[in-house]
Design goal:
By secondary structure, the protein is an alpha+beta fold. It has 4 helices and 4 strands. Strands 1-2-3-4 form a 4-stranded antiparallel β-sheet. It is globular. The protein starts with 8 loop residues before the first helix and ends in a 7-residue tail after the last helix.
């Protein structure tokens, strides 16, 4: 692909949307007081010192630096991967920057605040899905794209490959 790093604008967009929404909602909402938007969706300001689903949140603080190192390493690795993709890997070119942007958006929170700001809260019949943010949406959409590409990209490459004439 010509200039695959040009897709990094998606990472910048995710970071900008993530940080601006976290800033605005951190100033508009009262901590852990839900604002109902729909019967199954609230805006609820929460701080997560762990990872997804508050994994390791109860630990004394080392996880902040562990997740920061993971985010930096993953972002570097994914950027290198992005720089090497082929022209027919458009979904990969979109998915990788979405994950990079999400990782860096949450990294900012970890480094500046010591926790990740979450505010999107879905629930039904007293069951609450763990709150999340725009960075998490970028990571999730990027991961779905990677999974899709791993299945469909293989199929596409096999289809495009010339038939083996030795059989």
């Amino acid at each position: 692909m010509r200039q695959p790093l040009r897709w990094l604008w998606l990472a910048v967009a995710v970071i900008a949307l993530d940080l601006s929404s976290k800033y605005a909602l951190s100033h508009m909402l009262v901590y852990n007081r839900p604002v109902e938007v729909l019967p199954f969706f609230d805006l609820r300001l929460l701080h997560n010192t762990g990872a997804a689903f508050s994994f390791l949140a109860s630990h004394p603080g080392w996880q902040r630096w562990f997740f920061a190192i993971v985010a930096v390493g993953a972002s570097i690795g994914l950027t290198v991967w992005l720089s090497r993709i082929r022209a027919d890997e458009k979904l990969l070119a979109i998915s990788l920057p979405l994950i990079i942007g999400g990782a860096l958006g949450n990294l900012f929170d970890r480094l500046v605040h010591g926790y990740v700001v979450d505010f999107l809260s879905f629930h039904v019949a007293g069951w609450y899905y763990p709150a999340f943010n725009v960075a998490d949406i970028g990571i999730t959409l990027g991961a779905i794209g990677l999974i899709w590409e791993s299945f469909m990209g293989d199929r596409r490459r096999r289809k495009a490959a010339p038939a083996d004439s030795t059989h």
